[in-house]
Amino acid sequence: MKQLLFLISLLVSTLGFSQIQIDWIEVYEDQADGKINLYAHNSGHCPVSIMMSFPTLENLKVSKGLPVEMVIPNDGEEYLIVSLVPINKQANSNYLFDFKYNLGDVFNTVHNDDYAYTLPFEKGKRSVIGQGYNGRFSHHNLLALDFDLKSGTEVLAAREGTVIAVKEDSDKGCKTHKCKGLANYVLIYHDEDGTFASYVHLQKDGAKVKAGDKVSAGQVIGYSGNTGWSSGPHLHFEVYTPEFNTRKSVRTKFRVGDKVDYLEERKPYTSK
Predict the structure, then answer these.
(1) Any bridge partners for residue 244, and if so which?
(2) Are residues 120 and 244 in the same domain?
(3) CA distance linking residue 52 with residue 49, whole number of Å
């Protein structure tokens, strides 16, 4: 009979802006035929990558090479991580393990650089890129874009995907890093290539979607605000690929009128 061994609490963050905890991965232990089998179940809205190692193995050998690396799909199934086999069945056995994990497939995700993103703000509005890639205020070594928007402006999904996490309970913001954990946001998983997009600094109660929702490009997902580490009302937009314990932000092309190109800092753009 399987018994719950532990629950992995995944910390979903927006690279220094805000962080929430979600309980997605359950790990079970099952002892059968003299073996200890470890299983994982993903109850979330996207795949999760795990890396498992065993700093302590007493009288046990593993069925796979270490560390064990695998992706747990979010399909409702249980997946065998590894089996631990006693070396001497007459002796006591013991083990300790370490875990690394991240949302998404850290082994195979590659951004589709040809995808044409939709400008992520209300149709008919004009926005200046207040801070671009590797910006000097808060985008150091970060490929993200800040769209200057008045609070309450509709925020649109720039690409179709699945909503992974939503934070909308904050009403505070300031110009220093002391407020970086107070930003509201929507995080979306792009099913096509496995990347993620974060929409940050939304106003309080400013999300129009919830975790698990499927969204299309151009759909309203919330309202812009000034929460968290922010020097003024704007939308922070970032697309990234997942890696263990971190992530890698990527440049994104946008459809602007009849053209598809990268956006530039301090230039205005109109959503049509």
Answers:
(1) none
(2) yes
(3) 10
Domain residue limits at 38: 3-103
Domain harbouring 86, CATH code:
2.60.40
Nearest Cα to Cα of residue 232 among 179, 145, 187, 173: 173
> Final residue of a domain: which of 103, 130, 153?
103
Q: How many CA atoms within 13 Å lie on the side-chain side of 154?
A: 13
Greatest extent of the chain over all pairs of C-alpha atoms, in Å: 75
Count the domains in the chain: 2
Distance CA 39, CA 37 (A): 7
Going from the C-alpha of 166 to that of each of 41, 116, 202, the distances in angstroms are: 22, 24, 10
Q: Check residue 23 and give its pLDDT.
A: 73
- Token readout for 183 is 């930003």
Dist CA 131 CA 95 (whole Å):
49
pLDDT in tens, 118-146: 999 999 999 999 988 875 665 667 799 99
CA atoms of 225 and 204, how far apart (whole Å) = 8
Strand partners for 188: 163, 197
Residues 22 and 154 in one domain: no
How far is Cα 43 from Cα 146, in angstroms, rounded to an integer? 33
- pLDDT above 90 coverage of the chain, percent: 71
- Cβ burial of 246 (10 Å; 0-12, 13-18, 19+) is exposed
Alpha-carbon radius of gyration of the chain? 21
C-beta separation of 103 from 22 below 8 A: no
For 184-195, how does the pLDDT look when each residue is reduced to its tens digit (9 = 90+)? 999 999 999 999
CB 125 within 8 A of CB 119: no
What pLDDT score was predicted for residue 174? 86
Q: What is the number of residues in the chain?
A: 272
Region 225-240: what's the mean pLDDT?
A: 92
